[in-house]
Structures are given as structure tokens and as C-alpha cells.
Design goal:
The complex is a heterodimer. Chain A is mostly helical. Chain A contains 16 helices and 2 strands. Chain B has a two-stranded antiparallel ribbon. In chain B, helix 2 packs across helix 9, helix 3 packs across helix 4 and helix 7 runs antiparallel to helix 9. The longest helix of chain B has 31 residues. The chains are: A mainly alpha, B mainly alpha. Chains A and B meet through helix 4, helix 5 and helix 10 of A and helix 1, helix 6 and helix 10 of B.
Chain lengths: 433, 246
């Protein structure tokens, strides 16, 4: 105890700014006391990010980023490196769970209007994290240099080829060759292990800093900062706020434990997750002469990939699908300005909003199914074996694309034209436990 | 409120796991019934592999030493009963067949089988080993219903015997479709014994595609139990801290 406090004093004398920073973000950051299960996913995303960085460091110690050595080195890690299989499965499962957690975290934002004023900057930084994460995951997926890595890289990079005039040159510039090759693998490795993780870390710090400036939203969408003042710790702080540490650190610990138990179950018992987390075709080395039966990205990209596939070519170019895909992400960025709702939380919003959000989520799942080609099996199961799968898929998929984009159009009309009938929002946060 | 969220989550997770389980295996194939913890089956499978398959197919990611460790065999067992290629104990399993010759004989080099089960699934490999038939039209005399026009002759014919196709009634002008295969000449093994042999080879190849699978389930059960215990303690800690939040 004595030694501890004297070390503390020693540091404090030399860096008096450290403790105030700690207090501002931990013991004196007053978070609303009514967070529910949806509020676990932010801290879980941070946990997965740390997992990806730590396991990634160990993987790079044995991975060979060359077209001739990459595939073999992954098998070397799986078989000859002590606990190498565990490190790789933690990394590959972590990648998929990262997206599970981030998608749920984003959905929380939609449920409770966390993107609305004054948290637009928090949302923009979060969306930027999502975009960088997609690039990071895509490049990571190419590194094992299996056949799906190769063809996935070829298809995704060639999306840029649909851009008129510069497309073809752009594709060669990205890959450094005419096909995904050694040069591509080298640069994707560099970007995946150095460049993008640094950007991600910086963005996460900014995301949290921006959040702590304005304070956290909550399931009631009540701004505790503007509510009554005075709690047990500080008479000037929100009455409905509790210190992040220790209250939410111990609460998040429960979420962490449960999440890790689920993750461990996958890692140790279902590491490929039936081909969803690690695809069967990636057990075959990259081969530019053998095309896999179905080329499809990993599940977390498939909703956006399905948008590309469902939007038909027109006026002699296929660029519309690609524009649709980027548009689908851009619209999410713009949500704080599309939604002019007077009320944040879905608990007090109009029926139209509840209906629209439900349809939006269903459309997203529908697009995931199309993008993973699960529809190849689902459609004959539902409509009988004689049905024309492609045409049913096209009709179904285009309806899903219309609903996806329709959500934003509807939301703009609904809130800007004042059609929304909201319920009264309580003065203080409500608790249910 | 919390209860509703939790039941929603459990439901969503159940749905997800259900769909993924349903879609894990591709087109319906009979279940291979493999079990990599059945060491005797792995040993029998290894025997068949090293007597009939290694002539053409390598397992370049699997070392003899690893086989000995995982299958409960001694160095001597492996080196005198399984290793016919002259490799050292610490070497990977590399077939003797030169790639140029293979190219000449079959028109295609025989693939390495280290990851065959990871790539195709155990059921596929099991079905493939059961689906060879005599085909006079094929340059090698053999064909396969699971992988039509496979460039591979059937090395296990002396075990299974020789199968011939039974054709469906076809419209005039169409090629008749194969309805089933029937045994023309019996082999050394009865059909039931051959099924078991094919299952054993498949089991061995499943092991070869991921030797760590033996280890990970062993460790995994303790990790999951520890984490559940940890979660319970964390929950008690949370309750204690939150007693005074109303």
C-alpha cells in the first residue's frame, strides 16, 4: 500500500496531467444508469480489437507474405507452431465476431437514435471505423492465399474496374499486377498489419473522445446532462449518471465473460462455423486456373455484395451496382441529417419508424442470405425444386434492395414532413431491473 | 425488459446456429460417420492410406512423427509399417511418384490430400470412395459418380470389388442417367467391411486435414467451463456494486 501510493505520488509530481485524464474518462465520466444489453457491444468491440492486434502480432511471427509461401506458412502455423492453431482460430473467429459486435453496436444506434444531435460526430467517426474495418477485413482475408482469397480479391478489386475511363488502370494499380499476385499479397500484408490498424486505433480514440465530450445516449434517449443535477458523488453532475468506473467496468465484465464463453465455444468446437467463418474453398491453394463454384465474400460483406449483384447493368455499364453498394454505406453516414426525428429512442417514436426499422433489418438479413448464396438452397426448399432460382432470387433481392434504400427515403419524408406521431418522453431515465 | 432482450437474443442465436448447421454440408450425401477420437479407426485408415494411396498422393503437411504421436503408435510401428517412401521420421509424407510421370499417366498430377476433407467435407470423400465403377469409355477404365470423369483409377478395387452402373430408362437420343451402382465381382471384403474401410480412410484424412482438432476439443471444454464460472463471479460482483443504484 505504502509503496503503491509513493509510486503514485512520484508519477503525479512528474506528470500531473495523467490523473485528471483518468478521472475524466473513468471515475468521473457519468454514464446514464439505465444502459441495457445493447450497450455491451461497444466495449466488446474494443476487446475484439485488442484480440485481433495481439493474435495478429503472433501470426506475423510465422506468416510468410509471399504468393509462394503464404499458404504453406498458414498450415505451418496450424500444425507445427506451438498453440499456432489456437492463435489463428482466435484471429479468424475474432474477425467474424468483430462484425457481429459492430453490426449490433450500429443497430443499437438506430434503436435509440444515438446518431442524432448532439452525437453526429460520434456517429461519423464510428461509421469511418466501420469502413476502415471493412478494408482491414478484406485484406486480411486475402492473406491465407487460398483459392477463395484469390478469387475474392479478384472480384472485389475488379469492382473498381466498373468505374468508367480509369477503372481498368485503377484495378492494375491496386493489385500491382494483372491478377492478384505476389505484389498484391505484399502490399495487402503491409496495409493489414501496419497501416490500417494504426488508422483504426486513432479513430477509436477519437470516437471515444467525441463520445465523452457529449456524453452517452441511453435506451430512453433522455439527455441526462440536461436533466436535474446532483448525485452521490458530485452535486454538479447529472442526477441520473453513475461513474463509468467501477459501475460500468464491472457490468461490462459480465458481458465480456459471456461473450468470451461463446467465442471460446466457436474457437474450440466449431472454428470454421460450418464454412461461414472459414470457407471450405480456402483449404485449396490459390489457383488462377480453377474457379470455385461460387465466388462469394465472407458473410459480413455479403449484404453489400448482394446489392452489387441485384442492381442490373444499364446504359452499357455495370457501375450502378457498385454505386449502389457505396451508396448503401454513404446513406448510413448521412443518417443524422436524414432523420430529423424529435425523439431519439424507439420506445417513444412513431409506429412508422418501428415498422420501417423492422423492415430494414429484415432486408439486411435477406441481402446477407442472397450474398452468401444460401438462397440457392433456400428457394427450392420454399418453392419446390422446379422453380427458377435465379429469377426468384432477382425478384426477392431487388425488393430487399428497394426496402434498404426505401428506409432512408421514408425516414426523411416521415421526419422532415412531420408525419411522425411520437409518444411523450419522460423527464428522467426509466429503469427496469 | 431485460428478460425480453435476452429471450430475443437466445432466439436469434438459435435461428442462426440452426440455419448454419442446416447449410454446413452441401448436397445430401450419406453421413460418413467419422470420429477422429476413434484411434483404432484412425490406425486402420492410416494402414489403408499407406498401402493403397501414398503411391500417388502425398500428405505434405503431415509428418510421420506427428502420426505416431497422435495415433498412439511407436516410431518403430510407423517406420516399418507405414513409411514405405523412405522418408525420415520427422519428414512429411511425400509420395514417391514423380510429378512428370503422374502428368503422363493420368493427364493430371494427383492432388495432395492433406486438406482434402477440409476442402470437400468428410461425406464427400466417403461417397467418392464408394462410387467408382467400371467404364469402358474412360481411358483408365474407371469412372466415378461423385466426380464424373475423374482421372483416378480405383486403387481399392481389390477390397471393394468391381461395380457397374444400373441405368435409368432414358428417352431415345439422350445419354442414360446412372440410377445406382451394383457389385459385379466381389472383392476381398464384404460390402459392410468395405464401408468400414472407406470410413476409416476418410477418418484418417479428416484427422490429417486438422491434427489440432484432437487437441482443441480437449482444451476447449475447460476453457468454456472456466469462462462460464468467471461470468458467474463477474455477475455476483456486478450485483454487489450495483446494490445502491436505483
Amino acid at each position: 500500500m505504502k509503496a503503491g501510493s509513493s509510486i503514485g505520488e512520484w508519477v503525479n509530481e512528474r506528470a500531473p496531467g495523467l490523473m485528471p485524464v483518468y478521472r475524466k474518462h473513468m471515475t468521473e465520466y457519468y454514464a446514464p444508469k439505465n444502459f441495457n444489453i445493447w450497450y455491451y457491444f461497444g466495449s466488446l468491440a474494443l476487446l475484439v480489437l485488442v484480440n485481433q492486434i495481439v493474435t495478429g502480432i503472433f501470426l506475423t511471427m510465422n506468416y510468410d507474405p509471399s504468393a509462394s509461401g503464404a499458404f504453406d506458412s498458414v498450415q505451418y502455423i496450424m500444425r507445427d507452431v506451438e498453440w499456432g492453431w489456437l492463435i489463428r482460430y482466435m484471429h479468424s473467429t475474432g474477425a467474424s465476431l468483430f462484425f457481429v459486435v459492430v453490426y449490433l453496436h450500429m443497430f443499437r444506434g438506430l434503436l435509440y437514435g444515438s446518431y442524432q444531435k448532439p452525437r453526429e460526430l460520434v456517429w461519423l467517426l464510428g461509421m469511418t471505423i466501420f469502413l476502415v474495418l471493412m478494408a482491414e477485413a478484406f485484406m486480411g482475408y486475402v492473406l491465407p492465399w487460398g483459392n477463395m482469397s484469390f478469387w475474392g480479391a479478384k472480384v472485389i478489386v475488379s469492382l473498381f474496374g466498373t468505374i468508367p475511363v480509369i477503372g481498368k488502370d485503377l484495378v492494375e494499380w491496386i493489385m500491382g499486377d494483372y491478377l492478384p499476385a505476389d505484389a498484391t499479397l505484399n502490399r495487402f500484408f503491409a496495409l493489414h498489419v501496419i497501416a490500417l490498424p494504426l488508422v483504426l486505433l486513432l479513430l477509436v480514440v477519437l470516437h471515444l473522445a467525441a463520445l465523452h465530450e457529449v456524453g452517452s445516449n441511453n435506451p430512453d434517449g433522455v439527455d441526462v446532462k440536461h436533466g436535474p443535477k446532483g448525485n452521490r458523488w458530485d452535486p454538479t453532475k447529472p442526477a441520473d449518471g453513475i461513474p463509468f468506473h467501477p459501475y460500468y467496468t464491472v457490468k461490462d465484465l459480465v458481458g465480456v465473460g459471456l461473450f468470451l464463453a461463446i467465442a471460446a465455444f466457436i474457437i474450440f468446437f466449431q472454428p470454421t462455423f460450418g464454412g461461414w467463418f472459414l470457407e471450405h474453398d480456402n483449404s485449396i491453394p490459390a489457383n488462377n486456373l480453377v474457379t470455385p463454384l461460387q465466388i462469394k465474400p465472407v458473410w459480413y460483406f455479403t449484404a453489400f455484395y448482394a446489392i452489387v449483384r441485384m442492381i442490373p447493368s444499364a446504359f452499357g455499364t455495370a457501375v450502378w451496382g457498385v454505386l449502389g453498394m457505396f451508396g448503401a454505406i454513404l446513406l448510413l453516414f448521412l443518417l443524422p441529417w436524414i432523420d430529423a426525428g424529435k425523439v431519439k429512442s424507439i420506445r417513444y417514436r412513431g409506429t412508422g419508424y418501428k415498422l420501417a426499422l423492422t423492415l430494414f433489418v429484415l432486408a439486411f438479413f435477406g441481402l446477407v442470405l442472397i450474398g452468401t448464396d444460401s438462397t440457392e438452397e433456400l428457394i427450392p426448399m420454399l418453392f419446390g425444386p422446379s422453380v427458377d432460382v435465379t429469377s426468384v432470387e432477382n425478384i426477392f433481392g431487388r425488393i430487399m434492395v428497394l426496402i434498404y434504400f426505401g428506409y432512408f427515403v421514408f425516414l426523411w419524408l416521415y421526419t422532415h414532413l412531420g408525419w411522425e406521431k411520437t409518444k411523450p418522453v419522460p423527464e428522467r431515465v426509466t429503469t427496469h431491473d | 425488459m431485460t428478460k425480453r432482450y435476452i429471450s430475443f437474443f437466445v432466439l436469434a442465436l438459435g435461428l442462426l446456429l440452426g440455419t448454419t448447421a442446416a447449410m454446413a454440408e452441401g448436397p445430401e450425401m450419406p453421413d460418413a460417420g467419422t470420429n477422429i477420437r476413434d484411434t483404432a479407426s484412425l490406425q486402420r485408415g492410416a494402414h489403408i492410406f499407406f498401402n493403397y494411396c501414398v503411391g500417388c498422393h502425398s500428405l505434405k503437411y503431415l509428418r510421420y512423427e506427428r502420426i505416431a504421436d497422435d495415433l498412439g503408435l511407436t516410431e518403430d510401428d510407423v517406420m516399418s509399417n507405414l513409411n514405405f517412401t523412405g522418408g525420415k521420421f520427422g519428414d512429411p509424407v511425400i509420395s514417391h511418384m514423380p510429378e512428370d510421370d503422374a502428368q503422363k499417366f493420368f493427364g493430371k498430377a494427383p492432388p495432395d490430400l492433406s486438406l482434402e476433407v477440409s476442402a470437400k467435407g468428410a461425406n464427400w470423400v466417403f461417397a467418392y470412395l464408394n462410387s467408382f465403377y467400371l467404364d469402358p469409355k474412360s481411358p483408365i477404365g474407371w469412372n466415378n459418380t461423385v466426380l464424373p470423369n475423374a482421372a483416378m483409377p480405383f486403387p481399392l478395387w481389390e477390397l471393394q470389388g468391381e461395380q457397374v452402373p444400373v441405368f435409368k430408362q432414358a428417352k431415345p437420343g439422350d445419354d442414360p442417367e446412372i440410377e445406382s451402382l451394383k457389385l459385379l465381382h466381389a472383392g476381398k471384403l464384404t460390402p459392410a467391411q468395405y464401408q468400414q474401410a472407406a470410413r476409416d480412410v476418410t477418418n484418417f484424412l479428416e484427422y490429417a486435414s486438422e491434427p489440432a482438432a484432437l487437441q482443441r476439443r480437449h482444451v476447449g471444454i475447460w476453457v468454456v467451463l472456466f469462462l462460464l464460472g468467471f461470468t458467474f463471479l463477474a455477475y455476483l460482483l456486478k450485483k454487489e456494486y450495483w446494490k445502491d443504484v436505483h
